[in-house]
Amino acid sequence: MAYDSADDMVFGRSKSPVSYGFGLKIGAGKVIPEINYAPRPGTEKDPEKLRKEYVDYISKDILDRAVTAGFPDVQLETEWVSQMNQVKLSAPVVAGQEEICEKYHEEYGINCGVRQTIPDQREADHGLRPGMDKNKAYPEKLFECAEIACENGADNFSIESVGGKEFADYAVTNGDIVAFLFGVGYLGSIDMTWIWEQFVDICKKNKTTPGGDTDCSGANVAMFMAGGMMDNDVQRTFSAVTRCIAAARTLCAWEVGALGPDKDCGYEGIIVKSIAGKPTAQEGKNCQCAHCDLQGNLIAQCCDLWSNESVEYHPEFGGSSVQCWLGSLGYECALMNTSLQMKQEKTLRDLYMYADRSRGPEAYVLAYDNAYKVGQAIAAEGEHLYNRSLAAGLTGAKIILNGYEKKELGLTNKQLDTLKDIIKKFEALPAEEDKFVEYAVKEFKDVPNFTMKNYGL
Amino acid sequence: MLSCEGADFTQVVKRYDIDSQVIATPEEMAKKMLPKDEVFRKVAEEVLYMRFKTVGPVVMEALKQRNPLDVINEGLVAGMEVVAKLYAEHVYYLPEIMMAAKTMEIGIALAEKQVPGGRETKGTVIMHAAEGDPHDIGKNIAAVMVRSSGYTVIDMGRDVPIVDFIAKVEEVKPLFASGTALMTTTMSAFPEEAKILKEKGINMPLMGCGGAVNREYANSYDLGIYSEKAPQTPLIAEKIRQGYDWKRVRDEWDSIVGGQ
């Protein structure tokens, strides 16, 4: 564990800060707003239109507003639209954003930089590894995108990889936690390790900071389908446990050399920060432009970047959408940074945390004291991918049950039944990885698009 | 950590999910809804309780005593209708829907073999995720719900090229088609598809769905209709089957989807 105790973790400070871009220092004593955006539909059809959208409109608007409002730091995040797997569309955007950041840094002294998040378009049915997808060659394009991003000046390189997605889809819709454990915790971890070994080399070659990854296609799908108080297509106890398992997977990128920060939609960031001490990006109450969640305050508790998730570029009364949401992020960061300057950060951290601790099981297990315990369970299993994923899930489930029994956290009957069933299923699994894999391969042989070849096995 | 002693967090958070939960068990709620006939009830219970490993023998036994179409409609489909009601009442959730549908489909496949000339479908629906879009979980859920409602679904998968989609529509001539998109830059496939269909004289409703799509967008081009959530799709399908065109679906959308 990077921290001796949960109480040592705060927002704005990490054990291993990273520096990149034009003066950005992440996790080095302040929280920095990270603004993410989507271009207007139609702009992706033409390289010059897309460059203009990202650089001349979106990036310029952001940097202008940061200067207008007096924000000392801002990180931009470009999550590539799928069409940007063509170099003619992506290269001018990456290079243009780098150029405009440098201009504003030189002119105003604002610390800034861009995270380039490439798309992972690989499909399990066509193959996740090079040479398998004869039709669209998405595995090859994945690494081509990494090269394009890094060669053209990405300050930070990240991705939301899809290893294990075929299992996550099946597990979430069928309520099968063991399938999630196998697909995301085991197979997804193998995939993330494999892609990041190569990404880190590409980043090093181009002096780009390798940031991180998340299980957006699994744990986030579970969380969004679990939804709000009255949705519950998926039980929130189920999604809370998937989040813990996802932490064991997200850690893989950092283990093979990524430096952070990880991705904002990885709500498991608090768990991996407790283990590795690298900075984490998070999103919550200031990402309502993208979605509602049930831990909007709590999730700010130990963040180093504070994100809006994403907003489509369009006009609002207060300026363009990116300007408005940067304002929202920037002022929240200003509050956090004021508390750091006045040595009140632990008080603010705890206020954020208590505001949502009882809002649901996802928030409860991610409260920093509980997240730290999940981190300990992962760390205790070292590099054993299955065992640490199982430990994360089982520990998370027991923390939630304990919270319910102590009356700190309410659960519906269905949420409780689901939780108890998860614990029962986990406790019945073998302790040895090879026995589990042997069992899972047989048990899940009919899961659509499943083949061990996708994972080099 | 700050002490929270004395703090009343019910003043901060209201757990509507706990306050409004239905306490009745599926068994209690289903009792009045299951078929009266014992043979059909046994078949319906297989679906209701998602017994996909035993539904086969139970259906085969029922087929000895009742005609196959009745086993399908009065047993398997009736069981699924109870599942749908429990889902609407927040007693069952998505995993139960998926497993019950799987159970029903196993049973239907067995019974259908004994229907001379095959079972009549309510209509054919084409579903796809937009070109460039790899996200298809919502489409897959909707496909299960539409299929469970008695339609034949042709699922073209994800990242479907516009030309392939158009070719399939021309070939199959479905009741309607749906497309899902989670990205604002891929949903633009739908107006393009609609334009080509119109040029070819095909006046079929084209349902736009998915996280990126909203009602305003789906209604912004000819042929376009909207479905916000998977359970709404069979309700809209039923109206199209009754003869509603895309304009009438749009006009009456609020009342068609009701509380879903």
Determine Rg of chain A (CA atoms, Å). Answer: 21 Å
- What's the helix-strand series of chain B? HHHHHHEHEHEHEHEHHH
Ranges of chain B where pLDDT stays below 50 over 5 or more residues in a row are: none
> How much is the average pLDDT of chain B?
93
Approximate strand percentage of chain B: 5-15%
Annotation field: number of helices of chain A:
15
Poorly predicted runs of chain A are none
CATH architecture verdict of the largest domain in chain B: 3-Layer(aba) Sandwich
Q: Pairing-aware structural class of the strands and helices of chain A?
A: alpha/beta
Number of domains of chain A: 1
Give the N-to-C terminal Cα separation of chain B.
43 Å
Mean pLDDT of chain A comes to 97
Give the structural class of chain B.
alpha/beta
Into which percent range does the helicity of residues of chain A fall?
40-55%
Largest sheet entry of chain A: 8 strands, parallel
Describe the main β-sheet of chain B briefly.
5 strands, parallel
Set out the fold topology.
The complex is a heterodimer of chains A (457) and B (260).
Chain A: E1 13-20, E2 24-28, E3 32-38, H1 47-69, E4 73-79, H2 87-108, E5 111-118, H3 138-151, E6 156-159, H4 165-174, H5 177-206, E7 209-210, H6 216-226, H7 236-255, H8 269-276, E8 281-283, E9 305-307, E10 311-312, E11 315-316, E12 319-320, H9 321-341, H10 345-356, H11 361-366, H12 368-380, H13 385-405, H14 413-427, H15 433-443
Parallel strand pairs in A: 3-4, 3-9, 3-10, 4-5, 5-6, 6-7, 8-9
Antiparallel strand pairs in A: 1-2, 11-12
Helix pairs in contact in A: 1-2, 1-9, 3-5, 4-5, 4-6, 5-7, 5-13, 6-7, 7-8, 7-13, 8-12, 9-10, 12-13, 13-14
Chain B: H1 16-19, H2 26-30, H3 38-48, H4 55-65, H5 68-88, H6 94-112, E1 124-129, H7 137-148, E2 152-155, H8 162-172, E3 176-180, H9 189-199, E4 206-209, H10 215-218, E5 224-226, H11 232-241, H12 246-251, H13 253-257
Helix pairs in contact in B: 3-4, 3-5, 4-6, 5-6, 6-7, 8-9
